[in-house]
Design a protein that fits this description.
The chain is α/β, with parallel strands linked by helices. The protein has ten helices and 17 strands. Strand 6 and strand 7 form a beta hairpin.
């Protein structure tokens, strides 16, 4: 197929671009090469056609869409989105940009869209209460956290919740500007699909890592903090009790899942969790990085940040069942890759 890939010069985008070429597709990339993403200048890019331009510019979008069969939309402002002053940029870059692209799809008669969304649309995800089953966790209060009670409470009875895997049908509860913008992208894409008869695969990426992981952007997150300490010869300092659960998924698995969605999903609007399917803790991450560099073992501090999510882990059954994709990369080997890349 002839694919338009937006954001193809980014961390995940370069891996998707390479995988599309490997599978024999013709790739055209639209990327603004924005300075806050590419702080070290233009990255080394795979072979193929690159249009340097902004997805918010309708004329650029129209030019990029000529002759394509499907679009894979990764272009976005990423981050934690915790500062209210960032809201205009998230809304403009992510939501207005997606709206301009969708209008262009309708003009060009392109009916297939794969959209990069995020697990952040789930907020706190789900917890499991012995009495009330799967529920949306209640807020974690400062007094409880200071006392070392780190598990979120059941909103009905107040008892600590056990973690539960989040399926695509879980309640959506974005907690910051970035999360809200990703959910808005999904809603806009669904409106386009209904109006234009198009198909949308909304890929809710979980915690992506691997070679090319940016050192100083939110993709790196806590891994970059741990590695910075290890390079100084200091142990990684792990907040809370280290038991916060995440789904760390290798970028090669993410790229493979994304390309499979581009190739196979051609009917209706469907969300897919893109995770490894193996929940791991932040403590596991710190230990794996320390072992990869031969550094000191992590120290669990008991410190906390009010508003942090305790657990958010994916059920990726739908991805395997409907698209035939399962994560294959080894976690320890992947952490070694990250450590080597970020130390170079």
């Amino acid at each position: 197929m002839r694919i338009l890939l937006t954001g193809g010069a980014g961390f995940i985008g370069r891996h998707v671009w390479t995988e599309l070429l490997r599978r024999g597709h013709q790739v055209r990339v639209l990327d603004s090469l924005r300075a806050d993403v590419h702080r070290d200048g233009r990255p080394a890019l795979p072979a193929g056609e690159l249009i340097v331009g902004d997805v918010r510019d309708a004329r650029t979008v129209d030019r990029a869409l000529v002759g394509v069969d499907a679009v894979c939309h990764l272009a976005a402002k990423v981050g934690l989105g915790v500062d209210v002053q960032d809201l205009p940029d998230y809304a403009s870059s992510n939501d207005h940009g997606t709206a301009v692209l969708l209008a262009g799809l309708a003009r060009a008669g392109v009916a297939r869209l794969t959209l990069a969304s995020s697990m952040v649309v789930y907020g706190e995800g789900l917890g499991r209460c012995p009495a009330h089953g799967d529920v949306r966790p209640g807020p974690r209060l400062a007094a409880a956290l200071r006392a070392g009670a780190f598990e979120a409470p059941c909103p009905d009875c107040g008892q600590p919740l056990a973690p539960a895997l989040v399926t695509e049908s879980a309640p959506l509860d974005p907690r910051n500007g970035y999360a809200a913008s990703k959910l808005a992208q999904e809603h806009l894409a669904a409106v386009w699909a209904r109006s234009a008869g198009g198909s949308v695969a909304a890929l809710r990426y979980h915690n992506v890592y691997g070679p090319g992981l940016p050192r100083d952007t939110p993709y790196a997150g806590v891994a970059a903090i741990f590695l910075s300490a290890l390079r100084r010869g200091e142990p990684p300092r792990v907040f809370e009790d280290g038991g916060q659960r995440r789904d760390f998924v290798h970028v090669a698995d993410v790229a493979a899942a994304t390309v499979r969605a581009v190739e196979r999903h051609a009917d209706g609007v469907r969300a897919f969790n893109i995770g490894s399917g193996v929940p791991r803790t932040v403590g596991d991450l710190a230990t794996a990085l320390a072992e990869a560099v031969g550094g000191p073992a992590p120290v669990v501090t008991g410190d906390f940040r009010l508003g942090d999510v305790r657990h958010i882990t994916a059920d990726s059954t739908r991805l395997a069942r409907e698209l035939g994709v399962r994560a294959e990369e080894d976690f320890a080997a992947g952490m070694a890759e990250v450590a080597e890349f970020c130390s170079s």
